[in-house]
Specification:
432 residues; Rossmann fold; Molybdenum Cofactor Biosythetic Enzyme, Chain A; 3-stranded antiparallel beta sheet; 20 strands; 39% helix; binds adenosine-5'-diphosphate; binds the ligand O=C(O)[C@@H](O)C(=O)COP(=O)(O)O; kinase activity; ATP-binding
Length: 432
Amino acid sequence: MLLGVIADDFTGAGDIANTLAKGMPDVTGQAGGLVVAQYMGVPDRQADPAIEAGVVSLKTRSIPVDQAVAQSLVALKWLQAQGCRQIVFKYCSTFDSTPEGNIGPVAEALADALGVAGVIACPAFPTLGRSVHQGHLFVHDRPLNESGMQNHPLTPMRDADIRRWLGRQSKAPVGLVPAAVVRAGSEAVATALRAAAAKGETLAIADASTDEDLVTLGRAAAWAPLITGGSGIAIGLPANFIRAGLAAGTATRFEGVTGPEAILAGSCSGATRDQIEVHRRDHPALAISVDDVMNGITTSHDLIGFFRQNVGKQPLAFSSGNPHEVAATQTRYGREAVAGRLDELFADTARQLVDGGVRRLVVAGGETSGAVAQALDLGDLRIGPEIDSGVPILISQKRGIALALKSGNFGRTSFFAHALDALSGSAFDRRQ
Ligand SMILES: Nc1ncnc2c1ncn2[C@@H]1O[C@H](COP(=O)(O)OP(=O)(O)O)[C@@H](O)[C@H]1O
Ligand SMILES: O=C(O)[C@@H](O)C(=O)COP(=O)(O)O
């Protein structure tokens, strides 16, 4: 294995696995991507030697800092044992974190373990409108704290100055590689990162607003032991390995999976709520009352009944609420208690669905997807074609199922129906 990724949630893991598998021939001039596997947690076995990039999916974005650090270091050890020359710490393109962490503490712990400083931190994902200017993160034309992310149920983002935000989470000062340096090319970036390290800056926010900027950063960090960022930071990385003759693109085919289907949504993000509204117009949809879940009135048994009655009709069960509803529910029961009970509900439901024959499963929400995937004993996942930007088809050969794990804010408005069609799709061609 050449490249190892430690991802702080499961949808984010799929997002970067997709980027690595796809490669970016148009901007790198180098065809193809890497042969990628996504692992559910840290595997207890050696990786298949054919795998060039391994993505370890953790669920560390919203857990206590010390646990996030400890789990990330275990993942690092495993990836090093597989021979990885480069490690990417993948976090959210909207920098989802609290003032305490977990991005800063995990990134600094990985940097300490690898003995490096002047490490790139860049969440930019231009395809989906996430760009970094002078250390400030924008979502399209809005600063992060006005993008809707200020209302996130677990990690409300109330400061667009991510250099300052990361500084609150970090022991060392945080540096900046501004756009002017990035535009000057990869040598200039490498020089700036060396200067950051010399100043004692373990991490340095790098500006990026185009894929070309990300390729420049990827070139600058070609042989860096550690890089951190959103999936965009991986755009230029496959080309480094292919150019050096260490990896070669290989074609794989995805034949599609047929059989019963289900859609579960626990994301309260704007895009997911729009997708729910569109889907429920002409498909069966079950709105889960969080009060009923918290009071033991609604259980997985009710959800299973709903899905059984609606096989073949693309049924959707969702807990998602608007910011006002989320705030009211959290005030009544507590943020962690609600998230924990909903995670449990979705995980139990998914386990029974797959045991009962569901073969195509779509899940919306990073935490929700993490809970579901951990419950399913999926084995290693192979990466199929991209359904929508940042969301690949994931194939579990062990369970004979295909999944779409959708980040809250990703996907077209008709995503749910589109994803189920893609999972059952006719053959796709992909270089992997
Ligand atoms: N109606 C609701 N009220 C409060 N919290 C909710 C509600 N529905 C879902 N949640 C919780 O909100 C969180 C959404 O996070 P996540 O699944 O990561 O979605 P996203 O990808 O949009 O961030 C989860 O912890 C989920 O359990
Ligand atoms: O980087 C991104 O935006 C995604 O890969 C991601 O991590 C999204 O997280 P969720 O919105 O919690 O799914």
